[in-house]
């Protein structure tokens, strides 16, 4: 009780310092609680998926490539617990709402709300009867989309389709607006019919299993069965199993959560340092009081516990306040999670976890306080009477005023800096820590939000300015020559997207004609294939197969097998990609022909200009015909009829898997109009770079919010720390400041002296922390990825501007905050000291 009484008395006497320290503890407790109470992101994703019976594997079949026999094949398998197939619209283009600033690239599954489904259910919030429109995943609500607003889809030919937003929904997968594969929206039956008449439909097949160990085996069996059934290796356009897409959906959210909890730990470290500094400084300042207490009979233990109880009280109350603040901050953090993962997280109470966090923070700070009070036991009354000196040896005066060179202000500033070296060391350590954290956040924002190097590594796909998808009948050699002849095209590559089976598991085969021209896909070990018996695989594939460079793997495609030597490994942890030369894949499929041409454009030559070049050379693309906005030639009365017939032919060809069609229009025995699908060799022209830029906008938002959050909290911590430091310095030097004022020094001169006394520590700490962050942030991120199997992570070094900006912000703010806080000096006067 005596120690508790001393603690309460001390708090009443120096409540300002207690408030400053409490602010740091409040911030640390708040963010610890936000992260820990939210839980692990992957488990949240799995929990939502479980409620909606999410799929364990999905496959998107090309138009008219799905048959009921495929579902029967799955249902006969031992571990399959459910199968569901439905027609969906695969839409690529852009989407926006009039109240949203700019269109975002879209890659969407559009589903019919009236279809009955047993897997990957859709939970509609407040469905509206007898109305036409769309329901968007809940993540769109966080982007600013509102019920009743217009939702506009814009296809590659700039045709727009406008519908009313009827509400929002929960989905088990594809609910995130940052998803690189697909985003999932639900539309009413009339909207689905309208869009399907323009874009056709594909079949989405979902199935669930009771044993994840059998998942990939069943998937690969279905791939082989469907390819053999249809005699088409490209009958499945897209496929993924839960272990893969759950990582893809939650990876960046897990990174952000890890960063925030690490930042909370940094704040807590600052709190511990401040507790140790304040106690030790308080013991030095209050020698007279401690000596008086000891002379009155108080024991060293009682006095020491007085300090400990003081910080336990502050920490306990601050942790409670921080916990309450966490409930206010959680919605912002949950918004970031919803945008990135599509997982809806409710802000619920978690009293037991709150109590645990409060107790842990209080006990750790109490322990640090107890260890810091060891000096009280070493101070007998006799020593206290000598001002804390154990002997009468006086240290050498390092700065003699009468012999030192320079202005009196510089000399006094240097003298103060040497006199308060412990304070300056503490300040330097704290500034180093917060500077490291700030630069760390800036580097992540640059790497994930501004540059695209991280994202390219994640995708394990080539990102180019212009991509041309060819029809089956197209002469790729001739088209390649025409595109390559464009002086604004730097180079081209030809890519085929195929599917192969290795050890009864399905993988993607990327068939590339010239690996030397690749820019986005990076090899981490070895080299890309050169000979027809070589193959490169992603690190994920190598891990699944337990293979490395030099090992032999057997590829299977529609019953034909061939052995390949692994020549290299790419860095992506999520892709199922393998890489083959054209001659290499022809060992499996002799009739292979590339399906896509990727063009790298010269600077200043835009995608729109390239699209015009394609139009001038080849006429309309199939996607433009299907959009229905192709204009008729006013000089030809049959032009409108031709456009209508051609678009219908292309639609029939795509929807019913017809190889080619031709027609002729005869009038009075004369052919006035004739054409065929072969007149349109180009299916579509699009830009991967534009698609990536749209996804980056969401990552810029998420990591921009993270960087802003770190910046704001960093500045608050610096201000709080400086307020404690400056206050204790002013109190310790109050008599000296009064004497200096009596000697003629102005308040402004004394404030500058004290401010510049703190600057060296701030400058050293700011640059030291920034340099450490500059050197270890990206290696740290690389290590973080390597823990989940990502090897050879490729990144660009952050710009030196990022390092300098973090350091300059901290130094400038330290100067301004220090000068502001030294305003207390103006209240000190020689007259006041005489009175006291």
UniProtKB/TrEMBL annotation:
Record GO terms (molecular function): transmembrane transporter activity
The keyword Heme is assigned to this record: no
InterPro entries, per the entry: ABC3_permease_C, Macrolide_Exporter_MacB
Annotated GO CC locations: plasma membrane
Membrane topology: Multi-pass membrane protein
Keyword Ribosomal protein: no
Domain ABC3 transporter permease C-terminal as annotated: residue spans: 262-372, 709-824
Primary location recorded for the protein, binned into one broad class: membrane
Family membership: Belongs to the ABC-4 integral membrane protein family.
Name recorded for this polypeptide: FtsX-like permease family protein
């Amino acid at each position: 009780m005596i120690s508790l009484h001393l603690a309460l008395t001390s708090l009443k006497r120096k409540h300002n310092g207690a408030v400053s320290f409490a602010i740091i503890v409040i911030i640390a407790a708040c963010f610890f609680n936000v992260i820990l109470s939210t839980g692990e992101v992957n488990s949240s994703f799995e929990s939502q998926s479980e409620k909606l019976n999410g799929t364990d594997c999905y496959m998107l079949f090309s138009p008219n490539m799905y048959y009921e026999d495929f579902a029967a094949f799955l249902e006969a398998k031992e571990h399959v617990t459910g199968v569901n197939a439905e027609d969906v619209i695969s839409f690529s283009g852009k989407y926006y709402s009039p109240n949203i600033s700019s269109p975002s690239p879209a890659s969407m599954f559009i589903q019919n709300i009236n279809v009955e489904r047993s897997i990957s259910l859709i939970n509609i919030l407040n469905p509206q009867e007898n109305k036409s429109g769309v329901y968007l995943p809940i993540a769109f609500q966080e982007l600013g989309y509102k019920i009743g607003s217009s939702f506009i889809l814009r296809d590659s030919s700039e045709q727009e389709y406008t519908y009313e937003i009827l509400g929002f929904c929960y989905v088990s997968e594809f609910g995130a607006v940052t998803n690189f594969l697909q985003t999932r929206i639900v539309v009413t039956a009339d909207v689905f019919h309208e869009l399907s008449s323009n874009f056709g439909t594909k079949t989405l097949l979902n199935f669930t299993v009771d044993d994840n160990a059998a998942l990939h085996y069943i998937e690969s069996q279905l791939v082989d069965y469907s390819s053999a059934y249809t005699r088409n290796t490209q009958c499945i356009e897209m496929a993924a199993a839960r272990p893969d897409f759950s990582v893809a959906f939650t990876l960046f959210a897990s990174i952000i959560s890890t960063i925030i909890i690490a930042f909370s730990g940094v704040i807590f470290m600052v709190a511990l340092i401040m507790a140790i500094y304040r106690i030790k400084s308080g013991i030095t300042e209050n020698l007279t009081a401690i000596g008086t207490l000891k002379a009155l009979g108080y024991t060293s233990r009682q006095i020491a516990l007085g300090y400990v109880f003081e910080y336990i009280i502050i920490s306990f109350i601050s942790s409670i306040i921080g916990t309450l603040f966490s409930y206010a901050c959680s919605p912002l953090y949950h918004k970031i999670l919803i945008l990135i993962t599509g997982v809806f997280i409710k802000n619920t109470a978690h009293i037991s976890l709150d109590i645990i966090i409060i107790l842990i923070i209080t006990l750790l700070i109490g322990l640090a306080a107890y260890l810091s009070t060891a000096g009280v036991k070493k101070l007998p009354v006799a020593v206290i009477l000598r001002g804390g000196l154990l002997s009468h040896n006086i240290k050498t005066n390092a700065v003699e005023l009468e012999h030192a060179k320079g202005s009196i202000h510089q000399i006094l500033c240097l003298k103060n800096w040497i006199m308060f070296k412990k304070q300056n060391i503490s300040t330097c350590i704290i500034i180093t820590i917060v500077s490291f954290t700030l630069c760390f956040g800036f580097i992540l924002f640059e790497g994930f939000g501004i540059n695209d190097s991280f994202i390219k590594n994640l995708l394990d796909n080539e990102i180019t300015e212009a991509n041309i998808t060819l029809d089956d009948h197209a002469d790729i050699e001739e088209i390649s020559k025409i595109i390559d002849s464009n002086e604004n095209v730097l180079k081209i590559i030809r890519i085929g997207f195929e599917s192969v089976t290795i050890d009864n598991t399905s993988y993607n085969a990327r068939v590339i004609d010239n690996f030397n021209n690749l820019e986005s896909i990076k090899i981490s070990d070895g080299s890309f294939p050169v000979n027809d018996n070589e193959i490169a695989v992603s690190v994920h594939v190598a891990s699944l197969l337990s293979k490395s460079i030099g090992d032999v793997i057997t590829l299977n495609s529609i019953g034909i097998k061939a052995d390949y030597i692994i020549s290299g490994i790419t860095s992506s942890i999520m892709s199922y990609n393998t890489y083959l030369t054209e001659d290499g894949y022809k060992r499996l499929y002799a009739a292979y022909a590339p399906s896509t041409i990727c063009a790298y454009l010269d600077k200043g030559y835009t995608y729109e200009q390239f699209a015009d070049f394609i139009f001038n050379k080849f006429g309309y693309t199939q996607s433009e015909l299907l959009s229905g906005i192709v204009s008729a030639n006013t000089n030809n009365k049959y032009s409108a009829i031709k456009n209508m017939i051609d678009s219908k032919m292309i639609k029939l060809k795509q929807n019913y898997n017809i190889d080619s069609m031709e027609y002729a229009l005869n009038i009075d025995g004369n052919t006035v109009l004739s054409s065929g699908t072969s007149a349109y060799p180009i299916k579509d022209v699009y830009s991967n770079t534009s698609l990536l830029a749209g996804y980056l906008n969401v990552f810029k938002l998420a990591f921009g919010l993270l960087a802003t959050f770190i910046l704001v909290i960093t500045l608050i911590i610096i201000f709080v720390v400086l307020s404690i430091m400056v206050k204790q310095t002013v109190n310790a030097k109050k008599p000296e400041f009064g004497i200096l004022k009596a000697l003629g020094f102005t308040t402004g001169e004394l404030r500058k002296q004290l401010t510049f006394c703190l600057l060296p520590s701030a400058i050293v700490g700011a640059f030291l922390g920034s340099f450490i962050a500059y050197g270890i942030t990206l290696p740290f991120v690389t290590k973080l990825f390597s823990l989940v199997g990502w090897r050879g992570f490729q990144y660009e070094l952050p710009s030196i501007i990022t390092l300098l900006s973090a350091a300059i912000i901290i130094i400038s703010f330290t100067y301004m905050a220090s000068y502001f806080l030294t305003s207390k000096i103006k209240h000190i006067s020689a007259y006041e000291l005489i009175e006291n």
